[in-house]
Specification:
The chain is an alpha/beta fold. It has four helices and nine strands.
């Protein structure tokens, strides 16, 4: 009925994590971030459009610097529905020090193509070591699981990928 409170146990945040360190906005400027707030959304052939472009749109509207990153070595990346999207940059051009948030959209075979990309996996480990946020959507959490980055965390995924969430407490609805 919409009156249920959100269960805080469903969300894992490190106790010492201060979201304001990542998302600080100057309210005197029209939706413009006060620091870089750079978000990289990594696209591989076969990505799910809504899982990549919706976060891109919402975060851009919030004033963040959002960049679509091609992981296939080309400027255009083909979605799981055959629609080509022009990326802002190539994987080789990513500045890991400037990356405040890393987003991995799902879709098949997009998520498996992301997992097969060694350079992306190295960036993923670097982001995790720096204790910076990583978002994995739908099928993509399996990448984090197979990399051992979900140990001791709660995670969810598209049905059928639960066994790949190695080390995580898997949360499921219904």
């Amino acid at each position: 009925d919409g009156d249920e409170a959100l269960n805080p146990d469903l969300f894992h945040l490190d106790e010492d994590l201060d979201l304001e360190d990542y998302l600080t906005f100057d309210t005197n400027v029209n939706t413009t971030a006060t620091r870089s707030n750079t978000v990289y959304i990594f696209l591989a052939d076969g990505f799910e459009m809504i899982e990549a472009l919706t976060p891109c749109d919402v975060l851009h509207r919030a004033g963040l610097d959002v960049r679509l990153v091609s992981t296939n070595g080309k400027k255009h990346v083909r979605s799981s529905h055959g629609i080509e999207v022009k990326a802002d940059m190539a994987l080789n051009d990513v500045d890991p020090d400037a990356m405040d948030l890393m987003i991995l959209p799902g879709g098949m075979p997009g998520a498996t193509n992301l997992y097969a990309n060694d350079k992306l996996i190295k960036l993923l480990f670097r982001q995790a070591r720096a204790q910076k946020p990583i978002a994995a959507i739908c099928a993509a959490p399996f990448i984090l699981g197979k990399c051992g980055l979900l140990k001791g965390k709660k995670a969810t995924c598209y049905p059928g990928f639960e066994d790949d969430l190695l080390g995580a407490t898997v949360l499921a609805d219904g």
